[in-house]
Design a protein that fits this description.
With 337 residues, the protein is of the alpha/beta class. 32% of the residues lie in helices and 17% in strands.
Length: 337
């Protein structure tokens, strides 16, 4: 049955199942990608100037709205971090390279020099354009889900633009911009599955999540609290979220839990799977940077102010509107508070 499911899935989106397997095997390694268009920002690890609203709150002081704790926007480009990036001449940006419509290479494009494209890639382009005056001044690095924070802390990238949820725990380790996208956790399963959503139908089911993801944290907490069936198996975790789709296609797991927006894109890739139920959390994506790069965080927040006014909706309509419902909370940029 697993083999039949996989063969069926390979018929969808130009053999995306094969692409997913190949990407999942290779994307574990942080690959230095060619110089390409980008708009990203990053921290060099150099301390920035002090800010009016101060350093983002630590996790124990975070409260219920970590997405509201980023430093105030600023158009200043005189900080140490931004100066270092300008002197270097390019941004180093951690991204995904295998999330359909977020950060990926179209497998149907035979051009060997095809660039990464998608919603997160568009945002990286805009930031680079405003800070460096040229959207081409960027070097992308493919970063697995479970290495996003480490890549920032160890200076392998200046910033990460990779569907990264702002959480209190993460604010102890990295700094975040204001939110640029709102979504929530959702269940993805085969269309013929008995799974109906994030409910009792997950009893005795094997569920896949990405290591270090908010999806796993939610499942783990709910299982301990008795809000998720005790017989649900959440032991399958993978370095990259897309690896879960591969496991699902192979019949190795019964369901995937991930951000609803990502799940919708995966359902668009594979016509044998679908979203089950509705989102059961509210989460916000932010651009992650080094905690010492406050000047850069403030500058990125100013970019987001401009992007919400012009650019965000165009990118959303191009990449995501086809996979998300018109009444989706993701269809408009979240306001910064």
């Amino acid at each position: 049955m697993a083999a039949r499911r996989l063969r069926a899935s390979l018929k969808g989106w130009g053999g995306v199942g094969a692409m997913a397997i190949a990407c999942a095997l290779t994307a574990v390694f942080a690959l230095l990608l060619p110089l390409a268009h980008a708009r990203g920002d990053g921290s060099t690890g150099v301390g920035g100037q002090g800010v009016a609203r101060g350093t983002q709150a630590r996790a124990e002081k975070c409260g219920d709205h970590p997405e509201d704790l980023s430093p105030a926007p600023s158009g200043s480009e005189s900080g140490k971090t931004i100066t270092a990036i300008k002197d270097r001449g390019y941004l180093s940006v951690g991204v995904d390279q295998n999330s359909y419509r977020w950060g990926y290479r179209d497998p149907n494009n035979t051009d060997k020099d095809v660039e990464l494209e998608g919603f997160d890639i568009d945002l990286a382009h805009r930031i680079a354009d405003e800070i460096l005056g040229d959207p081409a001044k960027v070097r992308f690095r493919a970063i697995p889900t479970n290495q996003r924070i480490e890549a920032i802390q160890k200076g392998r990238v200046d910033m990460v633009v990779r569907t990264m949820t702002i959480t209190c725990a993460r604010l102890d380790e990295v700094a975040f911009s204001d939110p640029y996208f709102v979504t929530g956790q959702q269940v993805l399963a085969p269309k013929n599955s008995t799974v109906t959503g994030y409910d009792k139908s997950l009893a005795d089911k094997k569920i896949c999540t990405a290591t270090g993801s908010t999806a796993y944290d939610k499942l783990d907490a709910d299982k301990k609290a008795g809000e998720l069936a005790g017989s649900a198996d959440i032991s399958t975790t993978v370095p990259n979220q897309l690896d879960c789709l591969v496991r699902l296609q192979l019949g190795e797991v019964d369901a995937v839990v991930t951000d609803g927006a990502l799940a919708a894109s995966q359902a668009a890739q594979d016509p044998t799977v679908e979203l089950k139920g509705t989102t059961f959390t509210t989460e916000y994506y932010g651009v992650a940077m080094n905690k010492d790069a406050e000047d850069l965080v403030r500058r990125v927040n100013q970019v987001l102010v401009d992007y919400r006014k012009s650019g965000w909706q165009t990118s959303y309509d191009k990449w995501l509107s086809a996979t998300l419902k018109s009444d989706s909370p993701s269809s408009k940029p979240p306001a910064a508070h």
